[in-house]
Amino acid sequence: MARKPIHAGVGDEGEANKERKGLWSPEEDERLFTQITYHGVSTWSSVAQLAGKILNFELVTDFWLRRSGKSCRLRWMNYLRPDLKKEPISKREEETIISLQRSLGNRWSAIAARMPGRTDNEIKNYWNSRIRKRRNAAGNKASRDGDSSTEPAPAEEDPTDAAPAPIPSRFPVFGCQLLDGAGGGISFAGSGSGESIQSTITQQNASDESEAEASGGGQSNMLHFLSFFDQDYYPADLLVDVPGAMDAWEII
DNA sequence: AAGACACGCAACCGCAAACAA
DNA sequence: ATTGTTTGCGGTTGCGTGTCT
Length: 252
What we know:
Residues 16-80, 81-131 form the Myb-like domain. The chain is α+β, with helices and mostly antiparallel strands. It contains nine helices and five strands, in the order ααββαααααββαβα. β3 (173-180) and β4 form a beta hairpin. The protein starts with 25 loop residues before the first helix and ends with a helix.
């Protein structure tokens, strides 16, 4: 199987109607994240189409995310989802994986379902790269020693015990700026773990609701602007206008 | 310093199940 | 009941990076 090694850019006119493959660029991540955060998922194929660039109150459809729905789903599930744990798998989790694999077999999605914040892909990769190897090594050693047992070897030192969990280098770092129509607003920046983003938005939402109630309790006409941008790639003053952004509050 | 090698992980593919028309 | 579409899953590939020689 041949996979293109390069970042799949966005807005590449030469490849205008081709479906993109390969690594996701931060810009694509931003669009997908924003799309799903605002509008949720009806079907994954529609997510890919709707995640166009939103600019100056217009949906610029020639910047559609040219990804398959399948690819969007995979990216969201394995990487962008806010509830994902970003720290390395701990010793305790490794024991859980071993135990669940023993009872469930290679049903990685079933195993992942029992491990909040972990994805099937992550668990599968972990199993294939470390545990299976360790078991094989233990098996080989046992056979050399005349012992046919293939029980997993006890885990060696756990790197996660020693060092604080690093943020994966490839994970996009999002910033967010929220402004109201009167020019006031808040902004924050953080890693794309999503938790910080979500909690901040939720807090703002709560205060927003109370403000709305205080001013009559009806639908506020106040304009809100919300943007997620990758601080490594975009200038901090990039601002994306989101028509109907108030709807997004209902999602979170 | 540079090439070889090993490893981790993101993302692809094919297939099957679920669902809609 | 049939057909087409979408989603979800597991296996696999190959790039990027760190380590070794």
